[in-house]
Amino acid sequence: MKCLSRAAVLLGSLALALAGPAFSRDVDEAGYGYPLTNPFEATIATTPPDLRPQLPDNDDIRQSDYALKLRPEREHQLPENFWPVTKLHYRLARQDHEAPLVFIIAGTGAHYASSTPEYLKRLFYSAGYHVVQISSPTSWDFMAGASQSATPGYTPTDADDLYRVMQAVRAQHPDLPVSEYYLTGYSLGALHAAFVSQLDESRRSFNFKRVLLLNPPVNLYTSVSNLDKMVQTRVKGINDSKTFYQVVLGKLSRYFKQKGYIDLNDAFVYELQQSKQHLSNEEMAMLIGTVFRFSSADMAFTSDLINRRGLITPPNYPIKEGTSLEPFFKRAMQCDFECYLTDQLIPVWRAHGKGNSLPQMIQQVSLYALQDYLHDSPKIAVMHNADDVILGPGDIGFLRRTFGDRLTLYPLGGHCGNLNYRVNAQDMLAFFKGQDAQAPGLATAQTGN
Predict the structure, then answer these.
(1) Angle formed at CA 139 by CA 284 and CA 187, multiple of 5 degrees
(2) CATH assignment, 22-222+356-444
(3) pTM score of the predicted model
């Protein structure tokens, strides 16, 4: 009898192990139709214009920008010529009737009015939602106008700052007829959205009906390390006398000379990559890494300036209207995210008694910290790309185990490059409306990772 009982237990355990998590929804590449198979190119060029959804122009959207005064002490902490960012600005697009409201959280270093929040605003507005666009907690305007510590990077604190902003936005528009609340974010903003959603479970201010995470980092440290390493990519033709920018500008000059005119429109990068002057993988990687380095530099400079740490700007250095910030910008550009983490974020984290070691911090700021909540919350879904450049080994496996069939995994798109592809747009709207995604080639499958 004991042997039979033990055998039954073992067989039951084996069945559970073989069953694994609920299957993710993997989009079949053959039926997907997204044309860019190079993840670097997709990240930079996004979707060719003729494959994007038809959306309303900004002139057809009832929208305005507003300001919140959340950190009045910043008027004394920042130089006089920084007065425009002592208030946090955001954008609200409103319907002329009662409707659900979607909060959009921008990605790393991004302003609320940058291209991706603007695209998502137009998409959700066209489907009948009110939309609020909020800058990333890692952007200089959010750091100055809303952040408690002005030292972003500890995701729970960043989420708390975002939550207070959302509450203040709602309080500023008491007559806006909202039926229910939705939440989304892309890239780092998706990680923030997950933490904001978990925070709302206890504070219950919004009771978000659905939460959509678009291309989130799983391990935040892995993702920022991937981006930081791209700046160090070896690029053919670059040496001590010829910089990366000279190589790229030379290619652009030759491209426009052959074209006969300069046309910097949405299709520009896609057309460039079809020409003889196309950027190599190494050049595209360095371009992506450089953009991220600019964001890290902004973050390091602003955090140091507000907190008077003296790491980049001397604490009592007089900064006025005509003061050149170039020397401080150069110093900030030498500080990658690892430098910011070591010099500014970790000391603040330790001072607040949150932990001591880097592995502890990585656990607390990444999706790992919310695994049980995310696994058990049917209102939260993820849309990600199998070739996303910010993911590391095991990240897709984590997403499969945690979200099951609430993970839609596209085969292509790089990092957020396919968000404006019409198939992805349909899937986003379908999720918010509680429908099954109807993307062509969407297949139920599970693969190991």
Answers:
(1) 55
(2) 3.40.50.1820
(3) 0.85
The CA distance from 214 to 273, in Å, is 26
Mean pLDDT by 10 residues, the chain (449 residues): 41 39 81 94 90 95 96 78 79 98 96 95 98 96 94 97 98 98 98 98 97 97 87 55 52 55 50 63 77 85 90 81 74 84 94 90 96 97 97 96 97 96 97 69 39
Domain range list for the chain: 22-222+356-444, 227-351
